[in-house]
């Protein structure tokens, strides 16, 4: 078996599902039940999909020294389309919040505090681990000037919105699998919400929030690459909230036929060479909209274990690359990894999967959740 075999992701999902089940017997996350439970389950599926994608990338890198995408469309979409779905989830959730507050004041201060406390702590934790790994690989030597080293850390601390530099002359993508690229787009959406809210809320945002929003959008467009297809994903994710609020479509399409359509959409998506295609985005939007309207893909997305994996998905997304780097570079060593057969490599990934779930749980419980609770406490006060 190779990592591009369709059975490979299926086995990874089954192992992750079993790991979540066994962990969930002992550990309860005590998270509030989500209003959109199919979305909660979808997030767990997506984070593992990105892990599967980068597992394929790592196999090619360990064999050839080339860091490039997988050779099959299926494995490409486990990376690209999963992130597109993540963008749609972000848009769906926060456009829904705006619509729910249409006739009341939207608490922008609380919104930005919750977003900062949600994204920053785990990201900075991953950044500290990245710096530690780089220093280990550099034998604790600084190969650049102190000024250059400090500036690279600052740029990474800004979520690479301004630049994505190497740190200490080390290519960071080998350590974290380059997952940071999607986070600037998340921040772009969050800072665009005050502008979006002008067209939705009766009580318009204060001018200071509009100015901050405009400044960030201009800054992003000047200093960061803007890929239109990612913006289309946010637009696509914003359709379902209007359908839920202003139509009865959710009751009409919540049936087995919608699940079949979602499945057909997923099959059609992987026929495209890349997710950055307007037709692919359209099909993805249709699948996501049906899921957001309450369809669970034959019950899979409402499963307790999938929702458990969804709760810890942000840590999974940020740390799975670090785990792969630890296994194949720091623990096994690249010289040894290069000699692995395809089957041996897959077995190692299967053995690594439970640790991805466990470490994600630890990150959620001891980094994400405490800061999320702190944000709620601050906002209540």
In short:
With 381 residues, this protein is an all-alpha fold. It is 73% helix and 0% strand. The chain has one domain (7-380).
CA distance, first residue to last residue: 56 Å
Question: Which runs of at least 5 residues are low in confidence (pLDDT < 50)?
Answer: none
DSSP summary, beta strand count: 0
Strand content: under 5%
Biggest sheet overview = none
Radius of gyration: 21 Å
Shape: globular
**Total helical elements:** 17
Give the averaged pLDDT, no decimals: 94
Q: Percentage of helical residues?
A: over 70%
Structural class: mainly alpha
Give the secondary structure arrangement, pairings included.
Blueprint: H1 7-26, H2 37-64, H3 73-100, H4 108-137, H5 146-157, H6 173-176, H7 183-198, H8 207-223, H9 228-237, H10 239-246, H11 249-253, H12 256-269, H13 278-292, H14 304-311, H15 313-331, H16 334-337, H17 342-380
Structural description of this entry:
This protein is mostly helical and 381 residues long. It has one domain (7-380). The protein is 73% helix and 0% strand. The chain contains 17 helices and no strands. α4 packs parallel to α15 (313-331).
Name a few traits of the molecule:
381 residues; mainly alpha; 17 helices
